[in-house]
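[audit] Reproducing an earlier prediction to check determinism. Same input, same settings, fresh worker. If the tokens differ from the archived copy the diff job will pick it up downstream; this log only records the rerun itself.
[audit] input (306 residues):
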Amino acid sequence: MKLCTVAFATPANVPRWKRWLAYSPLARIGIFILVFVGIALPVKTMMLHAGWGSTAAADIDGLTSLVVFAQTIPALLAYLFLVRVIERRRPTELAWSKLVSRSLAGIALGAAIFGTVIGVLWLAGSYHVDGTTSPMKLLVPFIMVGPSAAIGEEIMFRGVLFRISEEGLGTWAALLISALAFGAVHLGNPNATLWSSLAIVIEAGLLLALAYHVTRSLWFCMGLHGAWNVMEGPVFGNPVSGLPPRGLLNSHLTGPDWLSGGSFGPENSLIAVGCSLLVALAFLMIALKRETIAPPFWARRDTRHS
């Protein structure tokens, strides 16, 4: 019999009102959003009022402080509230015993994927190195585009949106919903286009959701996501999702946008899309072989903790 590896199932003997207002997928996603906004909004307001932090894309230091204190920390606190208080379970997807091993595995994969992308661009004559930057100047962009962005975004899009959608609507619908949402939120980035958002849907939305589905580890996804960003920006010196480049290597890209990614960065390149899609397909093959693709809740015959 097929095993559905979902983390949470609504308790059998609960009142109908509680089933819908506390345990349904929409209710739990809504609860997370309310708690997250309740923490993040006043923190962001106070920071901006005090002049600590900026929303200007060129102010990397200001953006970093906002990401850490108004996104990453509130997302983590809101997720722990959702899991421990509402779902009343241990957050196995954030098990401390697996932090190092799963994070390192994700980092290795993320670095390998983006290293391959840059290698192909270099061989194609698109990636050029002009010089180097002192590593001491890269601490702030490293924190922003690496662990901070990865932690917050993986909690919101894989831990909440994908996981809870999968528990309700099944794996296929959850993949589509979470990937499209992840691409849509990047439409507001500098130099973003419809194509850049579609590229993110494919290379990040699908890849990271399938990585979570197979590993059931947010640590793995955070490592993968963070390593991709760090390799793209602080190491190879490219724009990350349209943000200004600051890297160990001072570099520039040439060639058509479909190859180089243009001003949005190499993740806008067909090379990055192709490399990520291959890895995503590998994860999908693993899921199909293990028969872990979850059907919608109404068609599910066996639901257990992952």
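[audit] rerun output stored. Observation attached for the diff report: The radius of gyration is 20 Å.
[audit] end
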